[in-house]
Design brief:
By secondary structure, this protein is α+β, with helices and mostly antiparallel strands. It has helices at about 1-35, 55, 75-90, 105-120, 120-125, 155-160, 160-170, 185-190, 205-215, 215-220, 240-255, 275-285, and strands at about 60-65, 70-75, 95-100, 140-145, 150, 175-180, 195-200, 230, 260-270, 295-300, 315-325, 330-340.
């Protein structure tokens, strides 16, 4: 009786051990599976958050750039970047990685720091909301230039070398990259032109198709209908076309978050709206800034059949107003919008 019981216990123990081994094997398989299958065409922008399981699946590597910063990048994107970098060096063009992957937590810290230092309005204009930054994917890479052995890392300095960026952009598709934020497409991407921000889509053929068409990722994926809004700078004795364009870019970036709406036109309303009365009104409306100049822009747009916010469904809105103030640093902020 005892002998039979001992044998039975031994059998149960063996079965338990085998079951335990099976669980570990299954766990290993699950971990391996979690590192596979990321979507290299994933869309993360102001309307589309990072997929919930992305951080469990993405495989990254770390590198140290020439200024000593640690940069984390998705593995295949980094391999492609090294090939791009090597090819560029044949033409005496030298780049390095300023940043790539940022966790949601790191983005939250940036958001909080900017809000504390510059205010909420400026933060919303310049920093992606945590969870909605393409940098979370590890597929978005910000480059900086190295010219005559010196690191050129500030945006305002890098923008001074359009001929170098042109050479870089010409080679992106060969290695599966696209230029992510195109000039004139701010109403679709939600961001101003950034020659340094490239995005890995894996397949060079797809990258070439997107590039040759002049598409944004949003349009290529069918998430947004492409539109080419009419821009009217009018005649101004107060502002240059570049200043008016800067203000209009702010409007277009804001418009990109209006899901399903199609921007048709933007117009400068005229110098006559830059009055002391309107400046006072904007300053009373502003939370944490003081403005010395004002621009009024009017827009035409069409709403989706499903509607958006408080707007009517499938409707053409004409002469919708945007009021912007210029701060002491020369930056334009949207302060008021709507029909006033």
């Amino acid at each position: 009786m005892k002998k039979g019981l001992s044998a039975l216990l031994a059998l149960v123990l063996i079965m338990g051990l085998l079951a335990g081994c099976g669980s570990k094997e299954e766990e290993t398989v699950k971990k391996e599976e979690s590192k596979e299958g990321i979507d290299y065409m994933v869309l993360v922008n102001k309307l589309n958050p990072l997929p919930d399981d992305w951080e469990d699946k993405v495989e990254t590597v770390h590198m140290t750039n020439t200024v000593g910063d640690d940069v984390e990048v998705e593995k295949k994107a980094y391999d492609a970047y090294l090939k791009l970098k090597e090819d560029l060096e044949k033409e005496d063009v030298h780049v390095d990685l300023d940043s790539a992957r940022r966790t949601v937590e790191a983005q939250q810290e940036i958001w909080d720091d900017f809000t504390e230092q510059y205010g909420e309005a400026y933060t919303k204009k310049t920093v992606a909301q945590p969870g909605y930054s393409e940098h979370h994917t590890g597929l978005a890479l910000d480059l900086y230039l190295i010219i005559d052995g010196k690191d050129v890392v500030e945006n305002e300095d890098m923008i001074q070398y359009p001929e170098i960026w042109e050479k870089i952009h010409a080679k992106l598709a060969d290695y599966g990259f696209i230029l992510r934020y195109l000039k004139g497409k701010e109403h679709i991407t939600g961001y101003g032109y950034e020659p340094w921000h490239i995005r890995y889509v894996d397949d060079p053929a797809v990258a070439k198709e997107i590039t040759d068409k002049g598409d944004t990722l949003e349009v290529y994926l069918g998430a947004v209908k492409d539109t080419d809004p009419e821009i009217d700078y009018g005649k101004s004795e107060l502002y240059t076309e570049e200043e008016l364009d800067e203000a209009m870019v702010q409007v277009k970036c804001q418009f990109a978050s209006w899901e399903g709406c199609e921007l048709q036109a933007l117009r400068y309303a005229g110098d006559e709206f830059n009055t002391e009365e309107n400046i006072k009104w904007l300053n009373e409306s502003a939370e944490d800034k003081t403005y010395s100049k004002v621009i009024k822009i009017t827009s035409d747009f069409h709403t989706p059949k499903s509607g958006y916010g408080s707007f009517e469904k499938d409707y053409d809105y004409l002469d919708y107003e945007w009021w912007l103030g210029c701060d002491e640093e020369g930056s334009w902020d949207i302060v008021q919008m709507g029909y006033n």
